[in-house]
Structures are given as structure tokens and as C-alpha cells.
Specification:
With 303 residues, this protein is mainly α. The chain contains 10 helices and 5 strands; from the N terminus they run βββββαααααααααα. It is 50% helix and 7% strand. A hairpin with a 6-residue loop joins β2 and β3. Bound molecules: zinc ion (ZN) (2 copies).
């Protein structure tokens, strides 16, 4: 028996948007029956093409013009507003506490450590949802699905509205940091929590800017990217290229080189594999689920 795999792409014309979309065909297989042995007094039969079961499954389709999945809802905006309050309260408390105690160095240092650790945290979180679980995973399912879609169609992040892009992390920040805000009056801890949670919450905006075009980004953003205070466009572009397992950090990207050089995530993946038997998605590379599709004609309609 021989199986002939055929990986195909084909174009279909969308009826509702009158735009061309590329749909992906996972796989189809043509199975040949084995050639029967010739026996006397038996009519010879030709090998027959056996029609395979229908394995043609169009997978998710890229978001289109005015796609609701890219737009902010009032729920998204409420969570982002709550997240902003959660970030601003400890920052204000840190400034007031520092002014009262005349101690500025420690809170500033704590804020700086918060900024550095937020980048590491963003990398670990990004690596986790890129490599493990799926859309049915409790709590993280939506984020996992969104990041898988992002690898397929990276440009969509630049079309995603602000609150739509930030609401999931804003919600996490509100749940984790708000109790600390209320319980703590130490300016050092407040400075750390305010800066760290703020950078985590806005990491998706920094990520979106890393996908921007230099000429279209605000000059201040470009300056911060060039200074290494925000993740650079070139560094993040490497995350979207083979072997698809580097440059996970998306706040400043300051950790990326160190983590990748020392194979930090590869070591974590091995540890998880030997302990729990789970394989990260990046080991199946190059997988069609991660390979970026070229921006289709439909996306040009956004401009
Ligand atoms: Zn990723
Ligand atoms: Zn990206």
C-alpha cells in the first residue's frame, strides 16, 4: 500500500466580502490498493484508486475588514480601565510614600527591578501559551488561541483595537495586583508592583508596536525601541521566523539574548517532557500551524 500525501493551498473567492482569501487544506491522501498476484483462471485487475475519506478541512480563516474579533467591547474597555487604576494606585502610593519618607532611591530601584522582571515574566508567559495547551485549556484557552492566530497572521495585531489587545492581561493584573495595592503601603513594594504590573499589562501594546512600520509608529515609540526600553521590531521579527522558539520576551526584550543563548526555554521544555511527557508545539516545527501566511489581498483593504 502506498500513501501519497498532498499538501495544497487553494484560493477561494469570498462571497460576502468579494475578496480573495487563502484557505489552507490540511492534507489529503490518495491510497493505492496493492497489485494483486496473478492467478490462472482469474481475470487480471488493475490497481484501483481508492477515494480517501474527506480529510480536506479548511482551518481558521484570517480576520477580515471590521472583524468583530479585532474590535474593543465595553467589557474590554472596563477591564483595561480597572487595570490602569490597579497600576496607577501603587505608583501614586509609592510617590507619596517616598515623598513622606524622603527615600527615593529604593523605590526607584524597585521600579527598575519591576521593569526588568516584567520582561522575563512576559517571556515565560508567552513561551507557555505558545507551546502548551489549546483553546479548551481552562483560564488560558482564549489567549492560547489568540497567540496561535497571531503566529499565522501576525499583521492582525496592528489592526486590533487597544482595549481588545490589552483586556486579558488587564484582567489578570487587576486580580493579582489589586489586593496587594489595598494591603500594602510600603513605597518600595508599591513601586515594584506598579511598574511590573504596568509593564505586564501594556506588554501587548509593546508587542503590537514591535509589529509596526517605523514610518507609521509615533517617533517616541521608535526612540524607545531603538534605546532598548521597548522590544525592538527586528528582535521580535526573529520570533516569527524559524525555528519559532526564540525571542519570547515582549516588554523590553532585554532578556531575549541571554535566555536564547543559554537555551533556557529548551531546558524547561526538556524538563517538562521528562517529568510530564508533554511535548511543546515548537518541537513539531515546521508546523503549518505556526508558519506565517502572507498577508492576503483582503488585508490591504484595511489601509
Ligand atoms: Zn509567539
Ligand atoms: Zn508577534
Amino acid at each position: 500500500m502506498s500513501i501519497l500525501p498532498q499538501h495544497k493551498y487553494y484560493l477561494t473567492r469570498s462571497s460576502c466580502h468579494d475578496l480573495w482569501h487563502r484557505n489552507r487544506v490540511i492534507c489529503s491522501a490518495t491510497t493505492l490498493t496493492p497489485k494483486p498476484k496473478f492467478r490462472p483462471n482469474q481475470p487480471a485487475t488493475e490497481p484501483q484508486l481508492v477515494k480517501p475519506p474527506n480529510l480536506v478541512t479548511p482551518v481558521s480563516i484570517p480576520p477580515v475588514l471590521n472583524d468583530p474579533s479585532l474590535q474593543s467591547t465595553w467589557s474590554h474597555r472596563s477591564w483595561v480601565a480597572t487595570g490602569c487604576v490597579t497600576v496607577l494606585v501603587p505608583l501614586a502610593k509609592a510617590v507619596v510614600g517616598a515623598a513622606h519618607s524622603h527615600i527615593w532611591l529604593e523605590p526607584m530601584l524597585a521600579g527598575y527591578i519591576g521593569f526588568i522582571l516584567a520582561d522575563l515574566g512576559s517571556g515565560i508567559y508567552h513561551w507557555g501559551i505558545d507551546n502548551y495547551g489549546d483553546k479548551s485549556t481552562p483560564v488560558f484557552g482564549n489567549q492560547i488561541e489568540a497567540f496561535q492566530g497571531h503566529h499565522k497572521w501576525p499583521w492582525t495585531i496592528t489592526r486590533r483595537q487597544f482595549a481588545n489587545n490589552l483586556h486579558a492581561l488587564a484582567r489578570a493584573v487587576a486580580f493579582v495586583a489589586l489586593p496587594i495595592d489595598l494591603a500594602c503601603n510600603d513605597p518600595v513594594i508599591n513601586a515594584f508592583v506598579g511598574v511590573c504590573s504596568g509593564c505586564i499589562m501594556f506588554s501587548q501594546q509593546f508587542h503590537a508596536w514591535a509589529h509596526g512600520t517605523k514610518s507609521k509608529l509615533p517617533p517616541l515609540v521608535v526612540a524607545l525601541q531603538d534605546a532598548g526600553l521597548l522590544v525592538s521590531r527586528s528582535q521580535h521579527a526573529a520570533h516569527h521566523r524559524e525555528p519559532y522558539n526564540s525571542n519570547y520576551c515582549i516588554v523590553s526584550g532585554v532578556w531575549n539574548e541571554f535566555l536564547d543563548k543559554n537555551k533556557f526555554f529548551e531546558a524547561l521544555e526538556m524538563a517538562l517532557f521528562f517529568k510530564l511527557g508533554v511535548r511543546p508545539r515548537s518541537w513539531s516545527e515546521p508546523s503549518t500551524d505556526w508558519i506565517e501566511e502572507i498577508e492576503s489581498t483582503s488585508q490591504d483593504a484595511f489601509h
